[in-house]
User: What shape does this take?
Amino acid sequence: AQSPGGPLFQRFRSRWPELWQKLLAPFHSQSGLMTPYDMTLEWFARLQVEQELKYENIEDENALVVFDTDLIITKVWLDYKFGNVPPFVTKRLSHRFMDLYLLCEPDLPWVPDPVREHGDDRPFFFDWYEREIIQLATPYVKISGTGDDRFVNARQVVEDFILAEKNKKKL
Assistant: This one.
């Protein structure tokens, strides 16, 4: 996962501001909620599902919606921390809502923030996220690089995907 204050997040938001969905994680970490972590994660997962449902049946064939996170991360954390994933999370993931994942490689220096933890375990979680995406049979591209290269790589993948989707619609 890319940090919400990180350059990729900020530049994607600048490049496609009308498409970008607000990041939910900082809301959770800054809300002062005093609930058990597992209950908060389940509540957060329900918010993620609600957010996806808003866009599930968009009529505009040119619509593109970009999320910076999804239920895979929440599913992994629920499983990792508590060994339990609510059935609604698995069921929702099986609907394959996302058309493409950008999976950010853990090749940037770790910068702690209020939302992230386990900086030394990033390769472990990266592999887990990748296995989850593969299990969903959803296309994905690994994004690497530092500075401008990372954004350029990610932008090119998204622009290629948009072009490919437009070409499919012409057929």
Summary: Residues 103 and 142 are 5 Å apart (CA to CA). The first strand starts at residue 101 and ends at 104. Strands lie at 101-104, 140-143.
